[in-house]
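>> Question from a student workshop board

For tomorrow's exercise we were told to take the sequence and the ligand below, predict the bound structure, and bring the output to class. My setup keeps failing. Could a helper post the expected result so I can at least see what it should look like? The ligand is zinc ion.
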Amino acid sequence: MSGVGKSFSVERILSLYPQVIHHSHYQGRNFTHSQITWVKLDCPFDANTKGVCIEFFRQIDSMLGTNYHPNYAGKRRMLDEMLSEMARVAANHCLGVLVIDEIQPFGPRPWPCLNPVCNRYQEACIETFEIRPYRVAPKGIEVGKTADFRCECGFTYSRRVPDPTTGSDDGGYWVRSRGAVWEEALRRLSSSGKYTSRELGQKLGVKGSLIRSKVVQIRRAWEATKQARAQARAEARLAAKELKRAECREQMLQAMKERPTASRSQLRLFAPVAHAWLFKHDREWFEASLPPPLPHIKLPSSVDWKQRDAEFAAEARTTAERLKQAPGRPIRVSKNLIAQEIGVSPIIFIKALHLPLTNAVLEEVSESLDDWAVRRIQWAAECFRQAGGRPTSGQVLKRAVVTRKKTRQKPALQAALNAAMRTFETQHGNRK
Ligand SMILES: [Zn+2]
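>> Workshop helper replied:
Here is what the output should look like for this input. Compare the format with yours to find the bug.
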């Protein structure tokens, strides 16, 4: 048991007795003897038995003015020898009680874990500590001793071991290692993205600046892992491709061996997968290893394209003329419309096929958007003329569905409008 005020109670009880009793008489005779009722040895937690013996002799000497310490506690004395001397001295002085009290420098065991993210935070869960010399520089002089307290979570903190002569522990500590649980908590909290460095620092019991550098480290490590994984995947893909290549070549060679006279396209039927793969991914080997392709033979066409082209061209011309002459509001005579009328739609086939003459005629007779707008202006003016009206240019444009802005931009439209308006002026003049 430790830390229940035992040392204090023992001292109070012992102080009730005189420590040394000097006898001068015994049963009516002169008798000189110093009896020691009790000795209490305070010994440091890390002291050995020899140290306890030395302390014992020192205390007896200070009580009685004897010379046990210099006589019996020399450095070269063996422990056994010292222990028997101690027993003899104790017997000589009729020692009543020997109390050996261990001084505990860090208070009662067990000690708390100081890791804020440990589930035993501030709970007394550390049973032991480890003493190690404390040096100023990494290889500097030893200035004292420190005790390392390590929790199960991996968090380890150190405290200075107080000098027993100068006083007690100041309660200060420093973190030696934060351990896996702490690092994991940092990783989890920082990757959640919910907290600032300062908030993380508060949660984890460190400064925000430390958190920032730690987070950078974590991110770097993560990037490195990611790169390593990507590289591994790329290597695996490459290996798989090489395997596939070997497999396909083997298949193709086998097919060629079994059918030595087969052509390239026949081989495709015998080993379709290998053929397709090698054609796409191993073209060089494919070209070098397979039999050369047979020349393409042109089949005679059953259609006389030249004659058909001439017929279509003539038809396109008359159709365009007919559409432009059609009564009512002008519709745009586009290439597509003409093609549709002569039955060769869609136009893309006309271009792709063998109809150069037809294409040239379509290009010539089809209307652009501006051509169409001019024709609409002419038509609108004609409508007003037949009705006997005298429209403004705005009315003509509105009827033609052409904007004023467009008219200003395009000289052809402006010219058409001007011409149309002039016809009304001369009509008007004639009437006068
Ligand atoms: Zn812990």
